[in-house]
Specification:
Elements (H helix, E strand, L loop, with lengths): L2 E5 L2 E6 L2 E6 L9 E4 L5 E5 L9 H10 L11 H13 L10 H4 L4 H4 L48 E5 L3 H12 L3 E6 L10 E3 L5 E3 L5 E2 L3 H9 L6 E3 L3 E6 L3 E6 L8 H9 L5 H12 L2 H5 L3 H10 L5 H7 L4 H16 L8 H13 L6 E4 L3 H4 L1 H10 L3 E4 L2 E9 L5 E10 L2 E5 L3 E5 L2 H7 L8 H6 L7 E8 L9 H5 L11 E2 L5 E6 H4 L1 H4 L7 E6 L10 H15 L8 E9 L24 E4 L11 H28 L5 H7 L9
Parallel strand pairs: 3-5, 6-7, 6-19, 7-15, 12-21, 19-25
Antiparallel strand pairs: 1-2, 2-3, 4-5, 8-9, 10-14, 11-14, 12-13, 16-17, 17-18, 20-23, 20-24, 21-22, 22-23
Bound molecules: flavin-adenine dinucleotide.
The site of flavin-adenine dinucleotide has 41 residues, from helix 5, strand 7, strand 16, helix 16 and strand 20.
Pathway: Carotenoid biosynthesis; lycopene biosynthesis
Keywords: Carotenoid biosynthesis, Chloroplast, Chromoplast, Oxidoreductase, Plastid
Pfam families: Amino_oxidase
């Protein structure tokens, strides 16, 4: 059977051994072959030769001479599906109809993609909320560690628990403990709660955020918390596509919108993305199809173990070692790695990246992004703190912990005897049955008693390092991301532009959004334009620069990405620098993350950096809080017995502990 079909710049040749696809316009770098051993002899061949003159035999000969890249037999049928879709998508923007014989060779799920429609280049404003739908069902075929079952009702003695740190981890711990009937006090050194996802209102009425926050559709622990506290309607669902903005306003998309769900929507997204060229997509297909992500489809627990084992290698090493290539890293993976961990693919562990991709591949909605409808203080931490108060919990802001007081029992077991706290000119020792440090990396390092470093669990924490990050907000007198209609971008009556998280490989900020569009309730201001929030990664070079210089540099880069914004004026700016934010998820660091239960029986840890199966994130912080609460409840009865044996604090020790100069704990 010989069928030849000419479509755009491609020619499909149905040889006796299967379909071949030739590309007429070729550069050396795009020379390659797409194939899958599962459907033997199916290939896409880039060749500068006139296709008509190349026979199957000549093709095979080329393979032998190395003129064509041969794919390994590891390539699975998933790769074939991917390849087929990649092929159809690269046929240009026209709808194309392949011959029925060729279509019949494609996997069923991809036959429909032979009719390829160009991805939409404009995103539509869509305001829908609620967590009733479009959340990945983590209850089914999901690793248990990531989505623990509901805790059993606690029946042990009521504990008085003191928590330091009122970020998401501290608040999640408090909610769980209060629901189990315990008494909870949270102490926060800052004047506002929320930690890294906190925000406050400045004198001009602007909400200043610690950073840009997006919620993946697999954040079930956080969604569970938001539903409890009645804040589930505060999330706006964005279009199911990941948008890359390239220099000059060129938009690339990783578009998950598809009739069929996981894993096909992911295959379709990667196959059709216009952020990568065909050759890069082929190399991506190779790497991803040989990753633990494929195992996750049938065996999520096993895949999680495989992913954990990949903590020792960087994502770049793993990706390139599995057939991926450098230009895919630069154009697509680096912005994503920066957004996830504030470091690039050469520095981030493969575990960190693959944890997310396993979700994307197996759960349809995992890659769907949500953003708050306004500022975190009003829409996230506010409702959680209200719930805590309604349940009888107490939150004490501006109360910083200066020291963890500790002693030993007669048999040498260490125990915490109190937290030394201060607020402006007040100071006190807080005593409790259980003590929780729900701090960030610099906070916990500063507070841990040095003598406790003889325990590996505590000593390992000092191997974790925080990554610097700088978040910039820029207000404009027009709409920065509106690139189609200059007139619209200049009016100030209606918010217009790209309503989603945006990535870029061409700027010092890897991810950003126009908050006036994405989170309008507190950021859209009548008579004003875009409020761009941009995350500078790596943040190191910007840390020493004055805020006005940073704002100007970022404004320049915004205008390089969006030429249509060149006439707009930046009318206001704010810069937030965090010297040590997320822990650096570098290769080999995961084993150093501490468990929530420690060698000190009445001292527990929470925080996104502590041991939990997710990455350092809002979801990880929430999960760590659930785990901390579970460990405390497990210890309930024995802890009460243990506490009964503890000697009373020597008044001289208490006096000495409070003998310090007043100063704010930062
Ligand atoms: C710029 C930026 C963007 C981000 N974007 C995202 C995102 O899009 N999606 C996502 O999921 N995650 C994101 N994250 C990560 C997420 O914000 C964190 O992982 C999470 O909020 C950490 O919560 P936590 O409670 O563990 O720690 P923190 O939020 O750091 O809370 C620790 C708290 O302890 C307090 N504290 C410290 N020392 C003391 C002391 N001695 N006494 C009393 N209190 C003390 C601190 O003030 C702080 O409030 C982002 C982070 C940043 C910085």
């Amino acid at each position: 059977m010989k069928v030849r079909l000419t479509i755009a710049e491609y020619v499909i040749h149905m040889g006796s051994s299967g379909p071949y696809v030739f590309s007429r316009n070729l550069t050396d770098s795009s020379r390659g072959v797409l194939a899958a051993e599962s459907v033997r002899h199916s290939r896409v061949v880039h060749s500068s030769e006139t296709p008509n003159s190349v026979s199957s035999e000549e093709l095979l000969e080329k393979e032998e001479t190395g003129g064509i890249l041969r794919l390994s037999s590891m390539v699975t049928s998933a790769a074939m599906a991917y390849a087929s879709s990649a092929l159809t998508s690269s046929m240009g923007t026209k709808q194309v109809q392949l011959s029925s014989s060729f279509r019949s060779k494609l996997p069923i799920s991809f036959r429909s993609s032979c009719r390829h429609v160009a991805p939409t280049r404009r995103l539509h404003l869509r305001v829908s909320s609620s967590l009733q739908s479009m959340v990945s069902d983590m209850g089914r075929k999901a690793p248990k560690g990531l989505f623990p079952p509901e805790p059993e009702n606690y029946s042990g003695p009521k504990l008085k628990v003191a928590i330091i740190g009122c970020g998401l981890a501290g608040m999640s711990t408090a909610v769980e403990l209060l629901e189990q009937g315990h008494e909870v006090d949270i102490y926060e050194s800052r004047s506002f709660i929320g930690g890294k996802v906190g925000s406050y209102v400045d004198r001009g009425g602007n909400h200043i955020e610690m950073g840009l926050h997006v919620f993946f559709g697999c954040y079930n622990n956080l969604f569970r918390l938001l539903t409890k506290v009645g804040a589930d309607d505060n999330l706006l669902v964005k279009e199911h596509t990941h948008t890359f903005v390239n220099k000059g306003g060129d938009i690339g998309e990783l578009d998950f919108r598809f009739l069929i769900g996981a894993p096909f929507h992911g295959l379709k997204a990667f196959a059709t993305t216009n952020q990568l060229g065909l050759y890069d997509k082929i190399r991506n297909a190779l790497a991803l199809s040989t990753s633990p992500v494929v195992r996750a489809l049938v065996d999520p627990e096993g895949a999680m173990e495989d992913i954990r084992d990949l903590d020792k290698v960087s994502f770049s090493d793993w990706f390139i070692g599995h057939g991926g290539n450098r230009s895919s890293i630069q154009r697509m993976w680096d912005p994503i790695a920066y957004a996830l961990g504030f470091i690039d693919c050469d520095n981030i562990s493969a575990r960190c990246m693959l944890t997310i991709f396993a979700f994307f591949a197996t759960k349809t909605e995992a890659s769907l992004l949500r953003m708050l409808n306004g500022s975190p203080d009003l829409r996230l931490s506010g409702p959680i703190s209200q719930y805590i108060k309604d349940k009888g919990g107490r939150i004490h802001t501006r109360w910083g912990c200066r020291e963890v007081l500790y002693d030993h029992t007669e048999d040498g077991t260490p125990f915490v005897s109190g937290f030394v706290m201060s607020k402006a000119t007040e100071k006190k020792i807080v005593k409790a049955d259980a003590y929780v440090a729900a701090l960030d990396i610099p906070g916990i390092k500063k507070l841990l008693p040095q003598q406790w470093r003889k325990y590996d669990l505590f000593d390992n924490i000092y191997k974790l390092v925080g990554v610097p990050v700088v978040t910039v907000q820029l207000r404009y007198n027009g709409w920065v991301t509106e690139m189609q209609d200059v007139e619209k971008s200049r009016q100030l009556t209606k918010a217009v532009g790209l309503d989603n998280l945006l990535y870029s490989a061409d700027a010092d900020f890897s991810c950003f959004a126009d908050l006036a569009l994405t989170s309008p309730l507190d950021y859209y201001k009548p008579g004003e334009g875009s409020l761009m929030q941009l995350v500078l990664t790596p943040g190191d070079p910007y840390m020493p620069l004055p805020n006005n210089v940073i704002a100007e540099k970022v404004d320049e880069q915004v205008k390089a990405l969006f030429p249509s914004a060149r006439g707009l004026e930046m009318t206001w700016s704010s810069v937030v620098k965090i010297g040590q934010s997320l822990y650096r998820e570098a290769p080999g660091m995961d084993p150093y993350r501490p468990d929530q239960k420690t060698p000190v029986p009445n001292f527990f840890l929470a925080g996104s950096y502590t041991k939990q199966d997710y990455i350092d994130s809002m979801e990880g912080a929430t999960l760590s809080g659930r785990q901390a609460s579970a460990r405390i409840c497990e210890a309930g009865a024995s802890l009460t017995e243990f506490n009964k044996m503890l000697p009373a604090m020597d008044p001289k020790v208490a006096e000495a502990a409070l003998d310090f100069e007043y100063s704010t704990v930062k």
